[in-house]
Fold this sequence. Notes:
This protein is mainly α. It has helices at about 1-10, 15-35, 40-50, 80-95, 105-115, 125, 135-160, 170-180, 185-200, 210-220, 220-225, 230-255, 255-270; strands at about 50-55, 70, 75.
Amino acid sequence: MLALLLASLSLYSEAMLVHEKPRLEQEVDQLAASDIEPFLTRPQQLAFAALAFDLPLYGAHRHPLEFYAAGKDRITLPVVTLLFVEDLSKAYAWLLANRYSTETVDEYAGMLHYGAANEWAPPLMALHIPDNALEDPAVKRMFQRLRNTAYGFIVLHEFGHLHGAATEEQADLFALDIMKRNSEIPLGLLLYLEAALYLPPETHPVSAPRLIAIANYLDLRVLEFVEGRPDRAAGIQAIHGIAGRLRASAAWLSDAEGQRLWAEQAKKTDVAALRPRRQ
Length: 279
């Protein structure tokens, strides 16, 4: 855990987090107003309107993937976590749009978890993402979908806990039940869960049953996710693909030898090995 604490401290300077905080506060407020609140039931809207979002620079455990609910109406979203998820979204979008493998993102998360301190670097630098990545309209659109659905899942998961969901699985399904109402493919859900798989947070552990429960929900409710989309066939394929990836991750969690080999490889990984590679 000490390694992860130091990683979160060294990924971004405190000055950078202070600088980014007002922008990220606006992003969260805009997300809540446009991507969440319109799709809530009336009682949920009343409860959601009473929420307060706290954005400290770091969370209680200073983990790069940390968020939690507090009291009855407060959700804590550390700036370091929002910025980390945003940068992962940029990396995924650029890699996918340019037909590069996203395995380097998983390797990067493993490097943070197991690697040497002198190899820690923020996602965009470590993954060799160009500074002008978002100038490509296709990359920008995909980035926004990834980031917003990742943020949306995080906020709604915590809203679920405040709304009576006692377990991680219950909070996940609560969040997905709302997310499917806006007919958006939950690509950011996959991004977040795979990052958390290789960079496990204490507050929201990723387990095989949790991943399988999400995969089952996606497969069973796939038509509800694409109900308002013009590209229903592509949407159905994408959601089944997300479910399949989650099932593969669940199987990996049950493979002790595979995890041991992954840890050994991650300890040897450095940023030079994370250069974009073809799928």
